[in-house]
Structures
1.
Amino acid sequence: MSWRTASWVAAVVVAAAAFVYGALDEGPPKTNADRVRALAEDFACPVCAGQSVAESDVPVAREIRRQMAVWVDEGRSDAFIRDRLVAAYDVDIDYNPSGSGITGLVWVLPVLAGGGIAAVVVGMLRSDRRPARDTPQPPTAVRRRRRNAAVWTVAVVVVAGAAGLLVARSSGSRGSDGSITGEIRATTRELIFEAQSRLGEGDIEGAIAAYDEALELQPSSAEALTYRGWLTSRRGDPDTAVVYLDDAIAVDPAYPDARLFRAIVALDQGDGSGAASELAVFDSLDPPPYAEDLLAQARVRERVTEARHAAVLQVVDGLAAIGERPAFGETALGVDDALVAAEALAARGDLLDAVQFLDWVLESRPDDPDVLAGRGWLLVRSGDPELLALGVEHLDAALDADPASPAGLVYRAFARWQQGDDSGAGADLAAFDALQYRPPDLVRLVEDQGLRGAISG
Amino acid sequence: MNSRGRDRRRRSLWIALPVAVAAAALVAVLATRDSAFERKASSPILGGLAPPVVGMTVTGEPFDLDDWRGRWVVVNFFQSTCVPCIMEHPELVEFDERHSAAGDARIVSVVFDDTVENVREFFAAHGGDWPVVAAGASRAAVAYGVTGVPESYLVAPSGVAVWKQLGGVTADGIDDVIARLSAAP
């Protein structure tokens, strides 16, 4: 084969290879989800044989993928993620080990070996050809050969360069529907707005599609996960909804909407204690007004209370009569259960039963401030002046046991106000306000009943 | 032997030399590293400040491991359905009871690939009254390099991760480690 033919063949091979590369290469990741997938393929599952984090479905691989999604959405670099995973799981997790330290030998040794072999082979070939170089050649032939070589080199470079440009056009960061800057079509925020807008129009399927697209861009978007879960539950699939909502809570434990929807779904599934737990977290997060409205609209508090009352009444009704009942400490009931049970009995109209029930608890826990306060509160709410006075005695005892008892302070403030002792009620309320932690249900009780206004008025 | 034969032998020698050097270096690297099991039983995080455990517990309270600086802390990764976790749980309860009065050592459990409902039921059934971190658990599990459950780490009062246990722990075992490390200069 002549030198000219060989050059053309080389140019055609370069161009063909470039086109094949351009056709097959997917370009850099377009979305965060793509980037998570690409990253997961670069790391070994720590407990699997020959599987990457992307391929494996063992729990540890799932946890790593979940955390990768959070890091990617936080804008962390690949190097940051690699450093974190190597710091926790050692270098064995990295399919592309770093070039520094002793691990660098993995890269250096093959290059050294290959380079050494190549040097030896080239040296031997040159020594074989050395005699041919000594043969004299005519000067015109040498010039012509050099000129031809230059021309063909330029031709090959031009063809290869053109192929490279074409490859760049077809495999850059832009997709076929991409903008000229190569950026993705829309941001997560825009997609969430679009989803909300579709939801407002009653287009649930369209909203779900928009949330899915947002999650494709940003898999750890707490907002998209939350509303995707909520819409899924409204479509009658609570089990899948729970997965979305739990993911949202894992990403952002302080996102009130996720807690609220999780509570509602728990109620729908008949899990009253789970709903109560989520509601307690929701209350501690200082939720925005729209979330409170939604909460009221869905009657979440009432439903949680009803569910807890029903559950605990089932236990209480199963207990033997008071005289034959085992001591409270020997039952599986806790103080919180006992207080809920007393409230449930009172709500059912059995005030005497409720008081007697707490008396039974006090036999085992005579100095428990919560039980004393609970019993006092039952009596204070009776409306009977004598029972009111008895209630205050219990509230005093509760505060003797624990001067910082939030329930004791709030309930006694109500009792004193009912007795006309506004200054005493104000002092209790001020002591409550000074507490480091004020239970949200007590804060709400004070506000809903307008106690501050009543005292100052 | 003629000169052609000598040339061939010399060439073979020159080719074999770099290959032999590379192979020897590779063997040296592999021979001086810990075995796969030893690497699994140790951890790159031991000896350094323990990675953060920050999140929300299953009862809805915020948790931050840093708030417990000054005590020994057992960071226990677990799953409610894993049999070894169920088997080790009474030992954790025992350890907690031994130290709850003095407050010199505490336990925090971190949920690993499980649901909050399952975990609540697990603790209701098996006892235990220490924080169980659910939200933020993935970040902690990956930061500690957890590969399976149960897996526990001991964090010294200084905040340094000093010990790792793959598989179930025992109350006596943890106390022995604490006693040994406390006695060390």
Note: The domain at 220-303 of chain A is CATH 1.25.40.10 (Serine Threonine Protein Phosphatase 5, Tetratricopeptide repeat).
2.
Amino acid sequence: MKDLVIITNNPKIKEKFEELKIDFVDNLSDVYSKSRDLVHQDWKLMSHPLAGSVKPAQNPYRSIILAPTKKLDFYSLNTIENAIQKLNQFKKDHKKREYSQKIKEDYQVIDLTLINSALKN
Amino acid sequence: MLEGKKTAILGDRDGIPGPDMSNKLKIVHYLNQFFGQIGGEDKAGIPPRREDGPIGPGAALNNSLGEDAEIVNTIICGDTFFNENLEESKSEIKKMLKAINPDLLIAGPAFNAGRYGVACGTVAEIAKTELGIDVVSGIYPENPGYEMFKQYAYFVETSDSAAGMRSAIPDMIKIVKSYIDKNGELGSPEEEGYMPRGIRKNIFAEERGAARAIKMMLKKLEGEDFETEYPMPVFDRVDPVDPIKDMPKTKVALVTSGGIVPKGNPDHIESSSASKYGEYSLEGVMDLDEENYETAHGGYDPVCANKDADRVLPVDVMRDLEKEGVIGELHNKFYTTVGNGTSVANAKAYAQEIAENLLADGVQAVILTST
Amino acid sequence: MQLELGKIKIEDIQFAAETKVFDSTLFINQEELLEIIGEDSRITNINLDIVHPGDSVRIIPVKDVIEPRVKVKGPGGVFPGFISSEEMVGSGRTHVLKGAAVVTTGEIVGFQEGIIDMSGPGAEYTPFSRFHNLVVDCDVKENIKQHEHEEILRMVGLKTASYLGKAAKDVEPDELETYEHKPFVEAAADYPSLPKVGYVYMLQSQGLLHDTYVYGVDAKEILPTLMSPTEIMDGAILSGNCVSACDKNATYVHQNNPVIEELYKYHGEKYNFMGVIITNENVTLADKERSSNFTAKLAEMLGLDAAVVSEEGFGNPDADLIMNSKKLAAKGIKTVLITDEYAGRDGASQSLADADPSADAVVTAGNANEVITLPPMEKVIGHQNFADVIAGGFDGSLEADGSISVEIQAITGSTNELGFNNLTARIY
């Protein structure tokens, strides 16, 4: 477990998982590109990068769990690339808007529980 | 869609002269220099121009459309100019379309002319995505313009050369007429006779999804033909070969579809839809320079490749690696063709022959460069 | 296992002094119902509305839709694990108020989804516009956390449906359907010459607001397992899912799973319907691998020749769908998948987040990104302002006149991946 890293832009993840290695980035796109970079450096995805039914780009918060492995994990690469493609597709149609603090927190909670559910297993 | 367009025209009508006071569909036709009756390859460098009324194949189109529609203007641009000055051509043509404000754009038909097909497709993309104008065109299915731009136009299938004009025109007219009859809401490719645009559109089926699933399962079980409702993207996967263990002892060849040829293109490899490939010596060649090499490719801006052909076929770097001992040697011949609009079947046949030659010459590795 | 479903046609719902069914009308004693469902001290207010097909009414945001039922004979009761005990269901006799439904609404999270229009163009996209609905709009205390709020609303819905269902107990059904599921050895022996087919039922199970319950157990905790189709028809599976309105499976569609109904149609004639494998859609890739391995193994143990696989949701579940497809195909099982698409508003993007050549037989429930304009309705139940932040909604989607432009993914049940609807997509 201590080898895991969570790439996230969700402040609630930072608060909740103090004992885990967290790589906190500024925005949604960075979560994905950082994860892809790690996959190329022999990390593999532990959680699915499109977890949750809230559509990509709609939820401004995302966390992805990765673990080190010995060589390039092709399934992870394929999955993260497909996810980035989907994110870009949804971004194109999604008009950026400022969410209220309550909605932001709801989105953070959703992302947090997805990661919680991943770590429990 | 059509209804919306008409309202927009009414609002915009001020200042636009023209006899069109009826509900006639206003059409603009896009042609290259050849079909625009300006000239052949020597006139391919002309910039976009706007003419009144129909020209060339537009006349036949216009006559058959009768009272329903009219080609009010023709936009003509040279294929070379279009491809070498892409951004300028696009913005100029967009300006023209905006000023004319047509209900529909007809482009081509382009047959298997690679640059023309790409130009028709690009103009369709501007019309559809930036101005909301629907587009009807005609093209040979293997013309790269179809694959690249199919979502922006209703392309009818044509033969590979202008000899097919006689059947292309009625096919395109049929689409335009249907477009008028159905108020711009065209039906499926099969109903209307255009090639699939790859666009997913919702419809209500006769049976619910679960019932359709069971029927599909029964057909699959019984080995009958069935049609999936969502064809998965096609993968043409090639298994990677084993890695090269000893590079310093490996003989490496260069092969390209980027069209690099000795100056003057001695074998006349076509700028698109190449019917052949070339084999040329690299004996004593350390660097591809402007005096001796160029590209025959008509599908990309050739300026950089003509200035220094190493940018497409990296002989200079390979010679460095040879000197440094990173590779054993560079094979003393290179193989080249033009990928632009070349059919997959032809490309496979060339590859087969090239591979046999390379094997016979003891080549152990190949670097393939495209554009 | 033999289940009789007694269907009592409901053609109207009215508030009245006594809760009962008479002459195809469901009468509801509002006070009595409110007393039962309002007992939870965390609830501050409940509003009840009756809406009918064709009414100029918009319900937004919808949490769940439930069919009222009652157990008449045999073991167990409705909504096992929640309302009734853990006793197995799927045999005996159950009465159904056919044509009536309970619709729950309430603000759980700020981006809550789900529109049901009872008339107009939107009504064609949601199956729930065809029913006489009792809408339960429930508010809770301010400090209630999201997961607790979901649970309160879920329970209010289930309690309402079970209260209404009781009115059907002594009513003579208009139709009586009988479904049987035998022990596997017997079932296989019944039609030895027919191919064996099964149903792989994928359940949403990613976490908060993405949950499905099997006999009260959160589906993310299960290993894939075998169930009798009659158990599902008798309400063993229910929804705790309130994200992704278009392709979440409301409790109603679990109760009336169309794949199971259609599979029964040719059972014993063209194939032998052996049973249902339920599996989940968890967040981790390890869980996905394990569950799909298990699913393919169970299919093999059942000796299946063919299977239908249904999905719930998009993105992450696409990975589960494709793993199931690959692994079933690898065992030589002929597979048909049911999914929906997110091909973008222009329909030109890749529809799924994963793909594989084994998935050569796919039924699609339509492109959820397609945009629709919903005209204003005379009455809005719930919170119309949600249209602006609803999934698929975008700025300006809620016009001053009350019309809404949204992707159809905001409409409850529009692209249901159990194949509940007729909507599909084609290449144009």
Note: Chain B has two domains: 2-192, 247-369.
